[in-house]
């Protein structure tokens, strides 16, 4: 691993003339975690939770970079991609979604996104995608999340969205309540 990869791309980010980044996600916990991680790597992050807020931020000051959720309560991140592209064609936009599908990825790239990552996305993977040159796609992650970890993250997200209600979470995940309780009692897998 080279020194640049070891610092999460911070040295490349520090050299950028414009480090403004718009982070749009309606999941407050994910938005906060990812926002802090991107700030620690050197981006000037503005966090918003809706398409309307994102479009207002873009109109106020169009960012050089954007990380946008695909599906939101008040619309789709694709509308924000188009808004950014109209004002700043050189902006680098990465789409995030919890609903990975080829058709959605194609729509995101056609709208102007440079890459498409499924949730939960690691901050290092987001930075790699944002900083990747146009000639080659970003390298695959060195230590991708295991399938068990992805499953655990999904369960935690649904549990949070259900207001930490075990019965409601179990119903939505179509699993037995006691099974869910055992999973929640364990530590996160690696």
Automatic annotation (TrEMBL):
PROSITE patterns reported in the protein's UniProt record: RESPONSE_REGULATORY
Superkingdom to which the source organism belongs: Bacteria
Keyword Phosphoprotein tagged: yes
Pfam family, one: Response_reg
Keywords recorded for this protein, A-Z: DNA-binding, Phosphoprotein
UniProt domain Response regulatory: residue ranges: 20-134
Record's keyword annotation contains Ion transport: no
Sites of 4-aspartylphosphate modification: 69
PANTHER family, per the entry: REGULATOR OF RPOS, TETRATHIONATE RESPONSE REGULATORY PROTEIN TTRR
Name of the featured protein: ActR/PrrA/RegA family redox response regulator transcription factor
Organism: Peiella sedimenti
